């Protein structure tokens, strides 16, 4: 393996390690049948925690091309997490409350 290739491989390995080290956990709450924010900026590798501070059940999901997930139905004081694994725009909704929408821009 040539020196330039070893440096490139080392840098790629270091980049992968550094993005894992600097991953954040971001909190989005639900209250009064709405998300605490309409938009969120995140990095690949970050985890978004959805915490239900409402008096009703929510079912948070995304059918976005960037990332698809369904966190299932969860009630008051419960929380669910999703790890963001690709860059792009993630549209998030609640299956129970059609007006609940937000976006996550993943870099």
Strand runs, count? 9
Q: Class by helix and strand content? A: alpha+beta
Sequence of strands across the biggest β-sheet: 3-9-8-5-6
End-to-end Cα distance:
32 Å
Major sheet attributes? 5 strands, mixed
Low-confidence stretches: 2-19
Number of helices: 1
Average pLDDT reading: 87
Rg over CA atoms: 17 Å
The sequence of SSEs as H and E is HEEEEEEEEE
Fraction of residues in helix: 10-25%
Based on CA inertia axes, which overall geometry fits? globular
Q: Strand content of the residues, in percent?
A: over 45%
Structure notes:
The chain has 107 residues and is an alpha+beta fold. It is built from 1 helix and 9 strands; from the N terminus they run αβββββββββ. It has one helix at 3-21; strands at 25-31, 34-35, 39-42, 47-52, 58-63, 68-74, 79-83, 88-94, 101-106. It has a 5-stranded mixed β-sheet, with no helix packed on it. The radius of gyration is 17 Å and the shape is globular. Residues 2-19 have low confidence and may be disordered.
Summed up, what is this model?
With 107 residues, the protein is an alpha+beta fold.
Write the layout of secondary structure elements.
Layout lengths: L2 H19 L3 E7 L2 E2 L3 E4 L4 E6 L5 E6 L4 E7 L4 E5 L4 E7 L6 E6 L1
Parallel strand pairs: 1-4, 3-9
Antiparallel strand pairs: 1-2, 4-7, 5-6, 5-8, 8-9
List keywords for this structure.
single chain, 107 residues, alpha+beta, 5-stranded mixed β-sheet, 4-stranded mixed β-sheet, 1 helix, globular, disordered N terminus
């Amino acid at each position: 393996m040539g020196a330039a290739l070893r440096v490139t491989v080392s840098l790629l390995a270091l980049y992968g390690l550094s993005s894992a080290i600097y991953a954040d956990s971001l909190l989005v709450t639900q209250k009064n049948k709405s998300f605490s924010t309409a938009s969120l900026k995140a990095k690949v590798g970050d985890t978004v925690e959805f915490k239900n501070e409402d008096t009703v059940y929510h079912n948070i999901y995304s059918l976005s091309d960037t990332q698809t997930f369904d966190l299932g139905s969860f009630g008051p004081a419960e929380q669910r997490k999703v790890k963001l694994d690709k860059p792009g725009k993630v549209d998030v909704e609640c299956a129970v409350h059609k007006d609940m929408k937000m976006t996550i821009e993943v870099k």
